[in-house]
Amino acid sequence: MLTGKEYLESIRDGRKVYIGKELIEDITTHPAFAKGAETIAMIYDRKVAPENRDVMVSEEDGEEFSTYFLKPKTRADIERRYETHRRIASWTHGFMGRSPDNFPSYLTGLATQPELFNEILDGAGDRLDAYYRKARREDLFMSHAVTNPQGSRRAGAEIDAADVISPTLRVVSEDDEGVTINGLKMIGTGAIYCHETWVGNLQPVPPGNEAETITCAVPLNYEGVSIWSRKSYEAMANSEFDMPLSARYDETDAAILFENVKVPWDRVFLHNNVAMTREIYFRTPGHSLANHQANVRFVEKLRLIVAIAHKLTDSNKAGAIPAVQSTLGNLAAQLATLESMVRGQIYDCEDMPNGYVTINRRFMYAALHWCTNNHSKICDIVRELMGGGPIQMPADSSVMEDPELNKKFETYWSLPDQSAKERMKLFRLAWDILGTEFAGRHMLYEKFYAGPSFIMDLYSYQLAGWDKLDSVVDDLMAGYDL
Q1: pLDDT tops 80 at residue 165
Q2: pLDDT for residue 213 is more than 90
Q3: What is the pLDDT of residue 4?
Q4: Burial annotation 77-99 (CB, 10 A radius, 16+ → b, else e)
Q5: Which of 91, 135, 208, 389 could form a Cys-Cys staple with 156, CB 3.0–4.6 A?
Q6: Partners of 19 in the beta sheet?
């Protein structure tokens, strides 16, 4: 298993990362990404520390590996996976969603049913099992790029006839050695810090576009792969005091461009199959295990948001007002509601093929629906509790570097029981959760993490158990008549 130092060394591997027009030579030292890389290294170190090993490190056939690669066979296994996710999320307060335990949850769920992949593509299940074992043995940090560029959808015949390159990733040729892929995939959240990316589809692919159904794993330093980062919030953070979350927990989002990238067959798990390119995640525990991790992570983020709400009302002396206490009680109840939904996923876990289990999918999708629809509302409530404090502060903490200005700052901005510096530190943290560009990105991320809201509704519709619900009405009506 990798140490933090070994992880940092392993991503100095010749990958192409662009931020604007700049090609980054080493993301571990660049001011746009260095602290984010250090945060991932911290996770690698902490998960093998003595106080965490019993939970976060598992063993099979004499081989140790991170517990998020554990294929769960019992509720106790799911409990261990949950606690592993919870600790990792707590170390970044839920602000690094695609942490090293996210995609391995997809992969682990997929790998519980290799026979499904063998039915789809000859030998694909055996290759998937081998890749899963490689990933857990090498302690790989992987991302996934499973969304196509907005507005890129065109019929296959139109693409073939057009004298242009399709923006959507697709297979352009294949031979005995493998496939060659070309095009763009979204959204590689965390990909800049990863060893490899999984390419696939969580969107339906219409008939006629079979070449786009390719599902494979690609090292991010392969020839022809380039990563195009959005603006770095870490680079915008003038100090950790002023922007503590932006400075340390910007996992970044990126588009990943593949230009005639050759992928060998041992890394190809699905090809030319419109019907199954999306279904593989739902017929296995892949989607459920990965989104359980997302639920657990959100709980840790919500825990910080609710705690900030309470600290802010203490600071602005509003905590004794009954209406404010009622609002805080409502926030505390919502935190408890989500925590209970997550615990219910474990308690009422489901049997899966081959002797494995997964979390309760109906409860998981309900929690995902809850998070999607409540994050921005909760942030609005906390923003109202915060009031105008952040914009009453000086521009940044540099004011405290000047002795004369700092004396005035402490004289006029302090409170009897709170120094001006303490107040500013609290408001800066709150603003990085609620008001900065980093905060705005998280508003977008939580709203569309698992797709638009109607997709959340459909997941719950499909798993509602309508036959059992209908029987409640039928049984009641059967008990009386004219």
Answers
A1: no
A2: yes
A3: 97
A4: bbbbbbbbbbbbbebbbbbbbbb
A5: 208
A6: 22, 229
Q: Which residues pair with 256 in a beta bridge?
A: 185, 227
β-bridge mates for residue 59, sequence order? 64
Residues 6+ apart with CB under 8 A from 12: 26, 28
What's the CA gap between 429 and 73, in Å, rounded?
41
CB 233 within 8 A of CB 438: yes
Phi/psi for 178 (5° steps) reads 160, -160
Residue 163 has pLDDT above 60, yes or no: no
The pair of three-digit structure tokens given for residue 258, joined into one six-digit string = 């593949």
pTM (two decimals): 0.94
Which helix (H) or strand (E) covers residue 66, if one does?
strand 63-66
From CA 253, how far away is CA 350, in angstroms rounded? 33
What is d(CA 257, CA 166) in angstroms, rounded to the nearest whole number?
A: 12
Structure tokens at 82: 């949950």
Please, what sign has the CA dihedral across residues 456, 457, 458, 461? positive
Residue found by looking up tokens 């979390």 in the block: 359
| pLDDT tens for each residue of 308-324 | 999 999 999 999 999 99
Residues 6+ apart with CB under 8 A from 419: 410
Q: In the CATH hierarchy, which top-level class contains the domain 286-387+436-466?
A: mainly alpha
Q: What topology is assigned to 4-283 in CATH?
A: Butyryl-CoA Dehydrogenase, subunit A; domain 2 (2.40.110)
**Domain coordinates in residue numbering, the chain:** 4-283, 286-387+436-466
Q: Is the dihedral of CA 35, 36, 39, 43 positive or negative?
A: negative
* Digit-coded pLDDT (tens) for 8-34: 999 999 999 999 999 998 999 999 999
Distance of CA 357 to the CA centre of its chain: 22
| Strand duo 357-358 + 215-219: pairing | unpaired
Distance CA 219, CA 142 (A): 9
Give the integer Cα–Cα distance in Å for 260 and 171.
9
Of 392, 399, 375, 379, nearest to 448 by C-alpha is 375
Sign of dihedral through CA atoms 431, 436, 438, 443?
A: positive
